[in-house]
Specification:
The complex is a heterodimer of chains A (640) and B (125). Chain A has 640 residues and is an alpha/beta fold. Chain A is built from 22 helices and 21 strands. In chain A, a hairpin with a 2-residue loop joins strand 8 and strand 9. Chain B has a single domain, classed as Response regulator (Rossmann fold, 3-Layer(aba) Sandwich). Classes of the chains: A alpha/beta (640), B alpha/beta (125).
Chain lengths: 640, 125
């Protein structure tokens, strides 16, 4: 379960965060109302705790705004005022509960738990699957009354799947749901956690509980019907319920995954073409011949990787193909980062097939079920039938439709509910789709918003005009559901990828951890290639008060050179990578200025604020980022 | 009922093979494959399949050229053709519609569902 705390009382935030983390909740925190709004928009939370008196945007307004924009999770308001009028205001604003200061931590966490349980309140709060039980109050998992020891992430995965037995969770959604904004690992990490969880459950006797849904993600299998152990596997207990069609479909998928090894050489050749382009970007020029070969390779990978269960791989390849269509050297790093991601996915192997010949009782793709990440699609069409069709087709896929039949209302609608994607009709009265698209593209804010056209017209000149106006794609009418959904997700996922690559930490404006990892990785590549030292410096502040982290972040760039990497690594730490630094010791070079900045923040009482610094240098201390980081962590010592 | 006969024309060996395996497992259809447009046109005339899956981008004789050749031959002009493409906008160009393509399938397809999608597109259900 993921919680957002918005409160300007840092002491409270710190205590509550550690308390909730100990209970296996994932917690994001911020002290500012506007930042809280940004957090809430960027990831799904099960519960948001809001203080009423907040800088930036007050809690009541934030609460109202969250509800107006469709946030459906729980909201708990905290306040120092106890008047009943205030309570009414709070509940009117859409809060689910209300707690008056002073309160004890125990009281607060009890309320939080009650709110989180609410959707399941009818049944017992203990979650069950066959002989497995998960007790959220105790944070305890048992199989046939034997305790199973899980890591917090494994526990979180299991709880999420148990609470939403019918939903499919993609890697992206799991990342959003179970990792905090400061700590977003790669998708391999999720696979690893799932594998470990499966292994532990299997050892405990709850085998075969989590299903891989081909190309889509993970889902809980239906529980065994009786209380018999799930292990009586010599005769598969659910065999009679498997439809022959589904069994064959699963078999075909399993056969495709099994065939992957046979085609590794072909896939390897295609990857080699991408690597050649990546190398040429470092040592220009990128010859037209190489560019074209790489584009063709990316195209083939996009069309084939998904066959073997690498759905994400197909998306990545499609992004690479797009990039190669119009390569820009300025974005060369993004290209190389994508190629490396693709390498990593292929190295990790296809999603293990959880269904050897006919394992599931449901078909893998349809019928669609609601997913947790919901996207908002603004559909602009003067034909009410098309709008009605979209409103029927898309919501089950997690795509909420904002219908609009008058294009002149576009601007007002965009402001009121900013969409993730726009579907535009070509021919409308008052304002032609192409003209509207052009106008949108002229505004910086909407330049990267995916825009797709729906059109019955397939004339080459009309299509050319669409792309000229800045459209990303077009779909022919009549609408075919699989095609439509497929194309929409391609666009939405690509947008998300680019956003991640451009990831910025909202508090400090520095790169976030994910982007920081990419940048540091790049620096390490350069260090390898040019045989130069790379200095990795970890700065850790205790306690990690946000405004002091922000103060450090503000001064760091002036102490470093352009091209050095600086990333917000965690709530309390910043990680710096400096290539061939001119310092002999980062402690001497950075320490005094940073200490002074922190001192200035607190002229009256230096209190117990401590800045720690740890350093490691490539190649002497290690060859990989992980190793260097470990070394830096071990060497953390306080700056006087 | 005798098994349906399908011809797959695609220059990419992996796509060809997975499509073949998928249709054989899920529908028990009789699947033949061709690695180029020329080979495909020749096989279509001798094998007379019930349907053809045709890749759009191929070297030398590409999907459109192949489609036109199939349409010019009296032996093959009646066979329904489904385009296979990773780029939808290529296959939805008017020339393909004019040349008689019956449907478009986007790559990568789900090996578990390919057969059903073909049945749906050609009204075989």
């Amino acid at each position: 379960m993921k919680i957002l705390l918005v409160d300007d009382d840092e002491v409270l935030i710190e205590r509550l965060t550690s308390d909730l983390a100990a209970q296996n909740y994932v917690v994001d925190t911020t002290t500012d109302g506007l930042l809280g709004w940004e957090y809430a928009r960027s990831a799904p939370y099960d519960l948001i705790v809001l203080d009423i008196d907040l800088p930036g945007l007050d809690g009541l307004s934030l609460c109202r705004r969250l509800r107006q924009t469709g946030y459906s999770g729980a909201i708990l308001l905290l306040t120092g005022r106890s008047g009943s009028a205030d309570k009414v205001d709070g509940l009117n604003a859409g809060a689910d509960d209300y707690l008056v200061k002073p309160y004890t931590l125990a009281e607060l966490t009890a309320r939080l738990r009650a709110l989180l349980r609410r959707p399941n309140a009818v049944s017992s709060p203990t979650l069950r699957w066959g002989l497995l039980q998960l007790d959220p109050n105790a944070g305890l998992v048992t199989v046939a009354d034997q305790a199973v020891v899980l890591s917090p992430k494994e526990y979180g995965l299991l709880e999420l799947l148990l609470r939403h037995p019918d939903r499919i969770f993609s890697n992206t959604v799991l990342l959003e749901r179970l990792w905090s904004a400061d700590d977003s690992p790669g998708e391999e990490t999720i696979r690893t956690h799932i594998k470990r969880l499966r292994r532990k459950l299997k050892q405990a006797g709850a085998d075969d509980m989590i299903e891989n849904v081909y190309g889509m993600g993970y889902r809980l299998r239906p529980a065994p019907r009786s209380a018999e152990p799930a292990l009586s596997a010599s005769v598969p207990p659910r065999l009679e319920t498997i439809g022959p069609e589904q069994a064959k479909a699963e078999a075909a998928r399993a056969a495709a995954i099994a065939a992957f090894d046979q085609f590794r050489p072909i896939i390897g050749d295609r990857m080699a073409a991408l690597h050649r382009a990546a190398i040429a970007l470092d040592q220009p020029p990128l010859l037209e011949e190489d560019r074209a070969a790489a584009q063709a390779a990316a195209h083939k990978l996009a069309g084939s990787l998904g066959l073997f269960g690498f759905a994400e791989g197909s998306h990545l390849a499609r992004s690479l193909e797009e990039w190669l269509r119009r390569p820009s050297e300025a974005e060369g790093e993004a290209f190389k980062a994508l190629v490396r991601q693709l390498d990593a996915q292929l190295a990790a192997g296809p999603e293990e097939s959880s269904a050897p010949l006919g394992g599931t009782t449901r078909s893998a793709i349809g019928p669609p079920r609601p997913t947790d990440t919901r996207y908002r699609v603004l559909a602009i069409d003067d034909d009410p039938l098309i709008l009605a069709q979209l409103q029927r087709l898309l919501p089950p896929w997690g795509l909420d439709v904002v219908p609009l039949n008058d294009p002149r209302q576009t601007w007002a609608t965009l402001e009121a509910s900013p969409p993730d994607l726009v579907l535009l009709d070509l021919d409308m009265p008052h304002l032609r789709g192409v003209e509207l698209c052009r106008q949108l593209r002229q505004q910086e804010r909407w330049q990267t918003l995916p825009i797709l056209f729906l059109t019955a017209c397939r004339e080459a000149t009309a299509v050319y005009e669409l792309y000229q106006a800045g459209a990303d794609d077009y779909l022919p009418k009549p609408i075919l559901e699989p095609e439509l959904v497929n194309r929409l997700f391609q666009r939405l996922e690509r947008g998300r990828l680019l956003q991640t690559l451009a990831g910025t930490d909202p508090l400090t404006g520095l790169a976030n951890r994910r982007k920081g990892t990419i940048e540091l990785d790049l620096l390490l590549h350069l260090a390898h290639r040019h045989r130069q030292p790379l200095s990795l410096v970890l700065l850790q502040l205790e306690p990690g008060f946000p405004e002091r982290i922000a103060a450090l972040a503000a001064v760091l760039p002036s102490l470093l050179r352009r091209g050095d990497a600086i990333a917000r690594w965690s709530a309390q730490s910043i990680l710096v990578g400096a290539l061939a630094p001119d310092w002999r010791s980062p402690r001497d070079a950075l320490g005094p200025t940073l200490a002074q900045v922190l001192g200035n923040q607190l002229p009256s009482s230096p209190d117990d604020l401590v800045l720690h610094l740890g350093e490691a240098t490539f190649p002497t201390d290690g060859q990989t980022l992980e190793r260097l980081y470990q070394q830096a962590t071990q060497r953390l010592t306080a700056i006087e | 009922m005798t098994a349906r006969r399908i011809l797959i024309i695609d220059d990419e060996a992996d796509v060809r093979e997975i499509a073949k395996v998928s249709l054989e497992i899920t529908k028990q259809w009789d699947v033949t494959t061709a690695a180029s447009g020329e080979e495909g046109v020749a096989l279509a005339a001798t094998h007379r399949p019930d349907a053809i899956l045709l890749d759009v981008i191929m070297p030398k004789v590409d999907g459109l050229a192949t489609l036109i050749k199939l349409g010019e031959n009296a032996e093959t002009c009646h066979i329904p053709v489904i385009l296979l493409t990773a780029t939808l906008r290529l296959a939805t160009q008017p020339s393909f519609v004019a040349a008689g393509a019956r449907a478009v399938l986007v790559k990568p397809f789900d090996p578990g569902l390919l057969g059903g999608q073909i049945e749906l597109a050609l009204g075989w259900q």
